[in-house]
Model the fold of this input.
Amino acid sequence: MLLVIAPQTWAGSDAAALTPLRLMLAWQPQAQFAGYYVALEQGFYREAGIELTILSADRGRSALAALRAGEVDLAVVWLAAAIRARAEGTPLVNVAQLLPRSSVVLIARVSSGVQRLSDLGGRRVGVWRGDAALPVEALLRKQNLEVERVPQSTTINLFLRGGVEAMSGMLYNEYHLLIDAGPEPEAVMMFPLAAHGIDIPEDGLYVLEQTAHEQSAAIAAFVAATRRGWEQAFADPEQALDVVLRRQRAEYVPANRLHQRWMLEQIRAVMGEPGENGWDWRLRREDVERVAELMQRLEMIDAVPSDIERLMLE
Done:
């Protein structure tokens, strides 16, 4: 199911003069996407000439699938998934790279006897379905870890109930949910993928090449308005949390202010402090080449696309 957040009416605006754009986020409403919600609610997109519709991805439909099908104009996609899609012939273009490094972790209980990453060999490990599984799969292949991969849902319940001995997670999400559920931090072992050679940039904004060419001005205006949204979200985090919680309640997503505050703080740490001219959201060529070569070496793609440089906006 696609859950739609309709843009608010902006008094005195000429809707006919606005360029309609559809954005699909990588998941349900949460502070990971606070900047988009703030920009929408504050009217930044309309000021930029954009009539924005935000859609939330759900279990049955990914943002990348919707973008491929032409159902949306922009999508939040991780770099590993974008490279694989490009290798399969989808003409993706990155127009902004918001999160330049990985927040994916593997989490295990100390009581299970897991002290090192190699201790996971032969154990049941929760792995997400779809594109989100790519970084964890890359780690398992790189470390030559033979594990029993157990499909992991969107909750931490399987881990809490002992169904798996390790689980996939995000530092800004599942890890905090787990600690909030009871275990003390010292009772779990956390293995950040970045510390083990799998540092793959995550949230990037992608469009199809045709959109990048035909709506270049609108896309640039959208990115500029999004930048304003994130600046505002970090300048007034409590207001941003109010916006996120309203979106969560509107889409019937469980809302927890404490958890969303943790998430927003972690997202800010990953995004980094802006420079004099704001954040440099350009996707770096060295990151694209590094990740593409890694995926080929681990046989996650057949070959690095010959036009891989077209993934980056010129």
